[in-house]
Structure formats: C-alpha cells, structure tokens
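re: that complex we talked abt at group meeting.

here r the seqs, copy pasted straight from the sheet so there may be weird spacing, ignore it
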Amino acid sequence: MDKKLVEEITSREENFTQWYTDVVLKADLISYSGIKGFTVMRPDGYAIWEQIQQHLDARFKQTGVRNVYMPMLIPESLLQKEKDHVEGFAPEVAWVTHGGQEELTERLCVRPTSETLFCDYYKDSIRSYKELPQLLNQWCSVVRWEKETRPFLRGREFLWQEGHTAHATAEEAEERTQQMLQVYADFCSEDLALPTIMGQKTEKEKFAGAKATYTIEAMMHDCRALQAGTSHNFGDGFAQAFGIQYAGKDNQLHHVHQTSWGMTTRMIGAIIMVHGDNEGLVLPPKIAPVQIVIVPVQQKKEGVMEAAESLLTALKEKLPERALRFKIDDTDRSPGFKFAEAEMRGIPLRIELGPRDIAEGQCVMVRRDTREKVTCPIAEAPERADALLSQMQKELYDRALAHLESHIEDTKDAASFEEYFKETKGFARAMWCGDRACEDKIKEDYGVTSRCIPFGQKRLSDSCVCCGKEAKHMVLWGRSY
Amino acid sequence: MDKKLVEEITSREENFTQWYTDVVLKADLISYSGIKGFTVMRPDGYAIWEQIQQHLDARFKQTGVRNVYMPMLIPESLLQKEKDHVEGFAPEVAWVTHGGQEELTERLCVRPTSETLFCDYYKDSIRSYKELPQLLNQWCSVVRWEKETRPFLRGREFLWQEGHTAHATAEEAEERTQQMLQVYADFCSEDLALPTIMGQKTEKEKFAGAKATYTIEAMMHDCRALQAGTSHNFGDGFAQAFGIQYAGKDNQLHHVHQTSWGMTTRMIGAIIMVHGDNEGLVLPPKIAPVQIVIVPVQQKKEGVMEAAESLLTALKEKLPERALRFKIDDTDRSPGFKFAEAEMRGIPLRIELGPRDIAEGQCVMVRRDTREKVTCPIAEAPERADALLSQMQKELYDRALAHLESHIEDTKDAASFEEYFKETKGFARAMWCGDRACEDKIKEDYGVTSRCIPFGQKRLSDSCVCCGKEAKHMVLWGRSY
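got the structure back, here u go
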C-alpha cells in the first residue's frame, strides 16, 4: 500500500490524544476556525452528523415526538426564572448586549440549552389536559463558553437535539424520561455499534434544575468514559417557576411534569474513539455516509471503468435502500493512495476491480475494520457486500462490548478499589454511602468521577468504599471526557 | 360543516394582511415568543420546513453540493474585511460582548449571513486548482436586527440555507450562480407550485459585496412581489479582500471566484399567500407533511375504524413513497370539526368514510383546493388518491400562473406606466435608463421597486418611463414584501 501518499497519523497506542486529533483533522472531519473554541464541520464530518440526525430523528418520531424551532436568544430575566438552572448555566453563556446600533434594554444570552424557552412556550400554549402530552424536540446549535475545548468533545458551540416534553402526571414524565434514555441506548447499540451502560446521575452530576438525570455511559478505546446521552426528569419544578398549568378532567388547575433529553455532535467523537484504528476512522456501516467505494485498478485500461460502472449499477439495483451511499473513486491517483484514503475516511467496504479480476469475473472486497480480503464472483457482489456490511456492523459492536467487559470490574472494598484504579484505566463498580463528600474525595484521590448509579443495582458489599459507612448505591466510577 | 367549532379567520378579500396573520396563527404554524421579533415555529410549521429542506437539499446534492457547519459567531474584524459587505450588514447585527463572566477583547456578531466565515475557511483550505470547485452549503439560523417583523416574512431570526462556492474561473462562477437560480426556480414551480420570474437585480437592489445578484420573484395573491430566492456572483472581490488564492495548472497563484445563494423560511409565507384561501392554508401535495387524512364518520359504529385502518394500509402499500404522510383522524371530535380543521391546516386530500359508504364499498374524496367531492370505490382509492394529488399539484401551479399572467403588463411609456400603477396592484414591465435616480423616483411616486431585470429582455420602447432618456433595460416593477 502506497503509505507515503497519505499523511501518517500518530499511533493510537503511543499517544491516544494526538491520534484522536490526527484522525479528526486528516479524515477531513473538522478544521479549526479563526475563532477560539469554534470549529468548522467539514463535508465528511457533517455527513456523519446528517446520518446521525436521520436515524435518531426517525426513532424520535416513532415515539410521537415532533420537531419545532425556538428562538436562539434568551432574555436574562427568562433564564433566571428557575434558580438551580440559572446557577448552572449563567456562568458559561455568551451575552448579546447590542442589536444593530442600539444597546439593548435587557441583555440576551445565546441559548446554552432551551428549557426556559420551551417553558415560556408551554406556559402560553397549554390550557387543558387535552393538549397533553406535548412531545417536542429541536435540532439546533448551542453556545457554552467553555475554557478547554476539543473537536467534537467540548466546544464553545456544538450541534445537538434537545427534546422537551410536558405531561399531566409525574408517572408519565418519569416513563418518558426513561423511554428516551432507552431510545438513545438502542440508537447507540444498533446504529453506532456502541454499547453503553444505563443509569442515574448522582445529585452532584445531575443537570441544573432536574429532579433526576439518567445517562448512558460509553467506554472509549483508552478506557475513559464518555457521557453519550442524558435524559432529565424535571418533576414540576420548572412548571412551578414558570406557572405552567393545565385544567384537568377534575376541572382543577395542575402543574405539568416535564422532561428534557439531548444528544450532541460529540457522538462523532465517540465513534472515532471506539472504532477508529491506526489507519484512521472506522465508520459503522449503518451511519457511514459512504458505505462502499469501488476502486478501479488500472482504470485507463479498456473495460475497467465500464466494469466498475456496471458493478455500481448492480449494487444500486440489488440494494436500493443503500443506493445513495456507494461511489466509484475514479480520481486521477494511484490505487494504493485511494485504498489508504478510503481507510483514513473509514469507508466500511472497499471493492477493488482490475483487468485481471474482470477477466476472471471476480472482484476483491476489503472490510475496513478487519482489512480482510475476500475474492468474490462479480455476479454475487451485491449479496456479499450486503452480508459483509451487516457482519461488520455486528462485529464492531461485539468488539466494543468485549472491550468494555474486559475493562470493568466489581470492587468490594476500599483496598481493591484503590488497587484497581492504581493499576488500570477502566471502569469500576463499587458501593457508595450517598454522601457528596465521598464522591469528592474519590475524585481527588483517584481522578475518577461517578459516571452513574447503574440500573440493575447489585449489593457488592455493605459499606462505602470511601468512608466505610453503610452503602446506599452501587456506583460506576471512571475517568471521563 | 360545523363551522362554529373552528375559529373563523378574516376574509382574504377584506383584509389580506389580517387574513395572513390569522392563517399563520390558526393553522398552528407559528406562535409569538416573549422576545420581540422572534417567533416559535410550531410542529405544523416546522414540518413544512422539513419538507422544504428535504426537497431542496436533494436538488443541491444532485448538483454536487455538500453540507457543512460554520461557527455561529463572527469576529468584528472578520466581518469588516470586505468593505461593501460590512456596510450592508453591520447596521443590523446582534453583538456578543461577553462570554461567561468575561468581557471579550473583540466583540463577535451573531451571523447575519456567512460569506466572511466561508472566505476564512477557503483561505486556509484551498491550495491548488485540484481542490476546486468547492461546492458547500449550510442549513442554519441567522439573526438580523430588523425593525418591522412579520411571521415568516421578516424576523430578527430566520432559518435558511446558504450555499457558498469557490471556482477557478469567472465563467464557472457565473455558470454556478445561474445554475442555482434555476434550481430555486425549478423547486418553486415543481415542488411549491409557485411560478416565478427570473432576472438580475439592479445595482441598488443587489447583495452587499456582490458583482451581480440574480433573483426569482413570485407574485402573491394580493399581487405583491416576494423575492423567493437569490443567487450572487461575487467575482473575485471577496477573494481579493480575504486573500483566497490557488496554484493553477500554470503554477501561478490566482484568486478564486465565488458565489452564494440562499432560500429561507419565508417560502412558507409564500405558500400561504399564493395558495391559501378563506378556509385556511392550502399545501401543495409535494411538500405537505400530511398529504391525506382519513376522517371516519360515526367512528364508534361497528366496522368503521376497521375500514379506515384497512384503507390506510391499502394506501400505504400501494403508494409506498408517500406512506409516511397519511393519517387517520380518530380523535374524539365531530366529523364536521375534523373537516374544517383539516382544511385550516391545508391537508391536500381528505377521505371521508362512514357506515353508509362502507356498506356501498365506497369512500368520498375531497380535494382541499377545489373542495370538490368525488365518490370512489374503496378498492380504487389508492390510484384515485394518487391521481388527485398529482392533479391538485398541477392545478395549483396553473392557477398561480394564470393569476400572475393576468396581473402583469407591458407598459410602453410614462403615461401608461402611471395609469397602470394608479389602477392596479400588479407587476409592470417597463424600460429604464439604468440611473439610480429614476429607480428612486419611481419608488417615491408609485411605491413600487425594481424587482429585477428579467431574463429574456424585450425592447418595449426606446426611452425610460421615468426620465425619457435612452432605455437600457426592461425592468419588472411591483410592490414588494
């Protein structure tokens, strides 16, 4: 393979952080903009986000959710209506103080999240129980004035979806909160080939203004945790603060119960850090913008381009639901360069087709993840390609799950907890007393944070691994992004 | 029809402006937010935008365009790099002066349009002729601090797409500028059933920083003009200002030639004002989020809901490409209310199905635009529905074209020009000397602006209808939104 033609990336084993940055830049996903903390999502990066949007949006709509668009700016007085919420967000928002030539009488912040806007809308539009539930979502960008930034993982602006629902009862709100967490978990496992651990955030880690925050936590290749999606139950706290009431069947006024849930462009970072390797990006077939690239070899020889075109046509005809996601690389560069570039960009399947292959009625298929070569009769190419893509999707998940399972451990006491985090970088499950002080101390001592209180609690021991007092919950601990 | 149950809207003939606002609000497209000049796009409004996005995005991608995402904020120094551009936009932008707790060293504006950001990106990413053309687009929201605002037509924030391309030659840039204008015109006529007039903007009306601006102009039902989409050729002006150069085949450095083109959520306003009527919204089938609503009559009687469900299944099976855009209204309200509501929301086709119909093996189809009732055997419903939707799409266009053609006139001299605009509200074509002074005077005297210098120029007379001097161009004049 013509390695020299494709710029090399740092080895993942040598320097994971640099490897990540190299892949992001060399696979043309992002480029830095002239504005600190803001990036440009380039076509190959944005195309992945478009796939994520399509898959996730379809899953939302299946549960009855509809999309809306709220204003980008929030008046300071509106942001301040819910006490915990403003405390959590006010320190990190961008403030608009002038519109055109005039100074504004009240400053407006660029939305860091839109709970307050949805509340303002619900306050005016919900009258009766007949208008409940309200199941709304929006796709937009938000701004948070972060100090440290990293492509996809943390930026001053990022793209996301934020769902906001309003319900008649506390039970319905809780059910929806968990339903959407499940939607995220299914999307991660089925579409992104990303296993996650579901659970509840501790008081310290929950969302500003929420009664309960649920999360799915994924493990990256370097064994650090990435919070992949969160779903919040607000109870009627926001409804009390904003005065969102409905007339029930009983003709009395009641406060609504609300939820919100979000997933962001950081999922692209998760895909890179879970599936990527030393050749670059590896995209799960289901969300790969290009699933198959046909690389003609000796493309100027008679019949080669024709054979490539007719193979493309056959693929499109036999696999109509994937038809838009195949291409031929007919650019004027060497096959070796094209192979390496297709690998850098993470295209799941490459089909090589040269004069000798054509003479023998065959082509060569190469899976991106295993880089295994399979020779296949041209006539059978569509079926084989389809099977290889499905197999790759499944095996990416299996491999990620195996990685997670081999880097997670149950620790029963302080000694084994300490030993674990001295020696490894993985996740540990351990019992916790429920006190913030222990959570803070564990972070200070080991650099790990409580990722969540996992669903499916087990009683590993009776005492907190930090203070030794009576244990309340089993917590998942790990270093996080 | 149970009219009383649906709130009435102002008559379109009595007060067009109020009728428009009534439709926007009562069809649940938009609600006003608590922030002056900002609106909430509600689910039924946003669903139309999603349809517009899908159709337009597919047309862009067919021409090789790819999507990206640029930062939302622009440093003041970047905005100022192109002299005409900053003069045009600086007076109407929103300024961010604080990030978190800190005052920024340089203020940032919320993008009113992103030419400067694309230029900044192209400056760093274009090196050689091999990287040209660059055909990029983004879907986003922009902020312009307008004084007067109206739902969809003019707001302090609106959603749009903005395409930005860079080319090796002036010819290619001009070709792309016109190609995208044609894409807009085709989208309007084929998808929105909206005839438009294509032409070039005068110097006065062109985009800040452009060498030439092309436009498509549509006529609303009240005969006023709406600028539906614009496409700009920047020549190498921005490239000079930003230093965007590429190494050509000749090994010399050359400036790129650029274009930009945009279409916004105001198209939803155009759909309302061209196709709507006194019953509410009328959506062209191709972009209607719901194309067919089945209204069961006496739905609690045995067999009615079953028949409705089986009709829905048959429609989905026979018309798979439309399958997601059918629904049954099984809510607990009277059929008359449902009919009126479906009309208010502009659903193209309604199918009524009651016990008597079922006994006779038939259903009743009602087109939204003509409100004509057609009785049809249930077995033939999918084919008939499909045909009615296609027919409605075509006839909406034909009707809008007839309206445009009957309200446009060629005026050959000052007297007939004056007479025309005293008596009617339509468009007039008339000769113009090319002087800004005449353009200003005509606006002052008649309240009309130059909409464009239409393609397919004719020489209606030899002298300007304003000053009598030698004519240079035939101009389309009209009152505009």
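couple things i noticed - Chain B touches chain A through 51 residues (CB under 8 Å). Residues 370 and 392 of chain B are 9 Å apart (CA to CA).
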